[in-house]
Structure formats: C-alpha cells, structure tokens
Amino acid sequence: MSEPPEQLTLALDGWEGPLDLLLSLARAQKVDLREISILQLVEQYLDYVEQARRLRLELAADYLVMAAWLAYLKSALLLPRATQEVGDTDPDELALRLQLRLERLDAMRDAGARLMARDRVGRDVFRRGAPEGLQVVRRSFWDVEYYDLLAAYGRVSARSRPVLHVVREREVMTLEAALARVAGLVGSAIDWRDIQAFLPDVTSAALRRSALASSFLAALELARQGRVELHQERSFAPLYLRRPATG
Amino acid sequence: MSDAFDRAVEAVVFASPEPLTVEAIRAHAGEGDVRGALARLVTRYRGRGIELVERGGRWHFQTAADLAHLLRRGRDEIRKLSRAGIETLAIIAYHEPVTRAEIEAIRGVQTARGTLDVLMEAGWVRPAGRREVPGRPLTFATTPEFLSHFGLNSRRDLPGIDDLRAAGLLDPVDLAFDQLAVENLGEED
Amino acid sequence: MSDAFDRAVEAVVFASPEPLTVEAIRAHAGEGDVRGALARLVTRYRGRGIELVERGGRWHFQTAADLAHLLRRGRDEIRKLSRAGIETLAIIAYHEPVTRAEIEAIRGVQTARGTLDVLMEAGWVRPAGRREVPGRPLTFATTPEFLSHFGLNSRRDLPGIDDLRAAGLLDPVDLAFDQLAVENLGEED
C-alpha cells in the first residue's frame, strides 16, 4: 500500500469544514461566484471526498454529511422535473441557496483579508513610545450639614437609650363583674333585649366601652353554658339576649 | 489666542497613552474650539513623520504609514490572527451587532472556543446586548479600539462595505433568496 | 531630500519608548545627517505644544513645560456621607476620645472598616492615642477641620441631649421611620 500523498493530507487538514472546501473548489472554477456551475461543484466535492476515502484519510463527519446532501442534490438536479414528488424542495432553490452561502462566506473572507492589509497600529503605524499620560486628580468634598450631624446623634441616642413603658391606671369593668351582672339580669328577660340594657349606668365613655367588652364576653360565656340565648341579624347589628326558652 | 489653545490640544493628545474623544480633550485643554484646533493641527502635521488622526471619534498621533519599514525593525511582530479569527472579526465588523449563531451560519462551522476570546482579549470585540428573540442570544460588536487599530474613522470606512451592502451580501441567505424570488417573479410577469 | 530624512528621525524618536542617542536614531532612520535633522526639528517644534529635547546625549519628545498643568487635571466631587458615616462622626464628636468598640456599642451595629477611613480621609477624625485598658484599643477624636466645617468654636458648642430632645431630634416617631428605613436598605450602605 502506498503512502497517501502528503499534500492532500495537509490540504484536508487546512479546510475549516465542508463549506470552506466547497468555496475553494468554487473559486478555482470561476472568479465570479454568481456564474459557477453548482452541478460541477458538487461533482468536484464528491470526487474529492471519494479520493480522500480511497486514501483512507480520516474525514470528519460533517464532510460526509455534506457529501450525502450534495449527492442528493445532484440526483435531484439531474432528474426530469416532472418525476419529482409534489412537496419536495425545488433542487434549483437548494442550489441557489448554496451559491448564496458561498458568496457570503467569500465576501467575508475577502473583507477580512482587506482589513488585515490596512495600516495597523503596532505593525505599520506606531503610537508615541513614552506618553507622559494624563491624570485626573479627584478631590472629594463631603456634603454634610450641621443639622445632619445633630439629627444623626439624636437618632443614635433615641435608639440606644432605655425606654420605660408606663401603663396608666384606668377604670375598667372586670369580666367577673360583668358575668355576675348579666347572669343576674337575664333571669328576668323573657323577650329579646339589647345588650346595651345590661350595661351599668355610667357616664365615663372609657368605662362604658370596657363594660360593653366585658359584658359581651360574659354573654358568650353564658351562652356556652346554656344560660342565655344570643341573636344578631348581621355583623355589627345590635346583639340581643334572652333567657333560654326551655330554661 | 487660537494658537495658545492649539498648543494645549496638541500637548494633551500627545501626552495621552490612549486615543481621546473631543470631550476628553476639552476636559484637559479647557474651553475652546477643540474641533477647530484639531483640524488646524491635522493640516500642520500633514506630510510629516508624525500624523494626527481620528479613529472612531477618538484622536491620536501616530507615525506616518510609509515609514513602517524603519520602525518595524527590532520590534516583535504583532500576534497573528488565525484564519478563523480574521473571518469572525470581519463578520462581526460588517454585520454588527451579530450573534454567535449568525457568525456560524455564515462560516458554515462552529466557532471554536478560543476564537471570540482572542478577539475580545485584543480589545476589538465586545458583547453588545442581547437580541430580543427566543433564547435572547448575546450579540457581538466591534469597539473603538478596533477602529483605531485598523486605521478606520468609522465603520463606514470598512473596505468595500457600501458595495457589499448594495449587492445584498450582508443580508442573510433567506432574505437574499426571497428577494431573488420576487425579482424572478417580476420578470416572468 | 533632507525633509524625507527629517521625517524618519521624527518618527523614530516619537515611537521610541525611551530617549535615543544619535547612534540609536541612525540605526533606525538610516544613514544621514542625524544631528542636522534633530536641529531642524528642534526649530520646527519651538513654541509648539510639543518640544524635542536632548537630555544627557539622548533625544526625546515631551510636552511643553508650561503646559504640564493640563496633564494633571483636578476634579472636585461632591459626595454624600453614608448614614453610618454621619452617625459614627456624631458619636465621636459627642464622646471623644472613643474606641471603635465603644462606637459600635452606642450605634448598636458593627462599624464597617471603611467608615472610619472615610472620616479620616475627609480630615474630620484622627486617631487620638490608645486607651490604657487590656488590648490598648485605639481611640478616635475630631479635628480642628471638623469644627470649622460645622462652624463650631469648640465641642462645647454641641447641643446637649436635652436640647436635642427639645428640638424634636429624639422623636420616637422619627425613630420608627428610621428603623424601617434601616431594615429596608440594610445597614452600612
């Protein structure tokens, strides 16, 4: 078995994928990519891959995928148009798309070469070797007013000084007193009576609120024990109490 | 005196290790007609061994291009970019902002891990926001350093960009194909 | 043409990272009257923003000495002191000399490393010797600049706690709002 020609090996190593190889083949064909023969290009590519295979060169999978696709394209291009199944992509369309791709890659390859050929800094033109440099010296001014300082100390002091909570003594009606009073009064209540009627007669509004709260709790407790019945139309409507009918 | 101000602008640009914008020059040279001073300085240095140039809106002094052979001697060659690197840079420059997938669609191969890194490390390419499509892919664009390194005033100065655009070669294949199809339909009518 | 050679000498000196001897210039610019070229360039640049000068037999460009002030530009910045900074400053003012641990005990939170640095950088606080207790912690005190910034003749001018309360600065309503703000913002921002 003869050694594969080294030149081909190197050439294959140099391609950056099947599109790259196709572009090189196309460029060899014509200067203007718009006039290349796609069919001829396909055949060149397939020859190339076949040759590599005969020489037992390792071909990357994407080259083989492209070869299979091009073989399909070739057969589609050669078949009479009428025999094609409806729904198949038009082979001319596929060929045109391939040509458009090649044109675009070619344009960018050309643009890259022209870019690299420009006068580049550090290769063709040089900046000053030892610039003095520009410096910006920052001076900070702090925006703090005297008030801010005092407010901050006030804040810290308020936060750290012990706080004493003193609860003022005030008149209340205890739950025990309310229980005794409501239980005593309900015994004579055959009809529904508003809970207000069970409260002691006091002038202090605070004590009256306390009495209402305690009497309400007393009423609930007595209802639980079955010693009173409660009735209310809806939320926040007057609450009525009476002696249980069977009691 | 415009001459005193020209001197100030000249000194500031000369002393800076980086190309400077007009605003940066003004910050150091003080209030005055910076653009006017720059224009006068460009004229003054024209044909000398040193030139004042604008690159991507930033100004710097550099040696005249025809003297490259004298200055290159004894210097390390600047790092060579791989073929993949050159193509990728060209695609980004001519198409920006462009996603990695779009670069790969044009090149027909996956972008190797190091290719974009090298371009970003050189300071020529930067991430430029995400495209508002599903997956929100990152886009890439060139930097002012790119323009400055390759001696371009702006992207409009990219070699042949107007011709490429006019020929539709900067449009994606799908778009170019559709346009061709429309033209052919028109001819058949 | 002497002008072509002048250009070469100009570019070589400009691009060099260090001052060059006449021989070194010749090595790059080629055979020619280097001294003559240097003399013509000195004349050409005289009075400009850039000068060509010789120092100890070596030549280099430098910005004109009278423009050196442009290269160092001062910029004033008005900055806000953080809440932690103001509180720490107030505690030092009222309690000086005071250790870091004491400041933290009064504030009820740890003092970030940068807070005292900022106050010292501002020139309002200085280290004021060590307290003679185990560990010999450093104490801090205010400076004369602190007094002058806040328009005080002496620390005795600082209002007492009763004055602060009378002025509503110990108002617990404010405290409640402050603490909400602290919880929301995080301490030591």
From TrEMBL, chain A:
Domain of life assignment: Bacteria
Protein name: Segregation and condensation protein A
From TrEMBL, chains B, C:
Family annotation (PANTHER family): SEGREGATION AND CONDENSATION PROTEIN B
Pfam family, one: SMC_ScpB
Keyword Cell cycle found: yes
SUPFAM superfamilies, per the entry: Winged helix' DNA-binding domain (SSF46785)
Name of this protein: Chromosome segregation and condensation protein ScpB
A Gene Ontology biological process term: chromosome separation
Alphabetically ordered keywords of this record: Cell cycle, Cell division, Chromosome partition, Cytoplasm
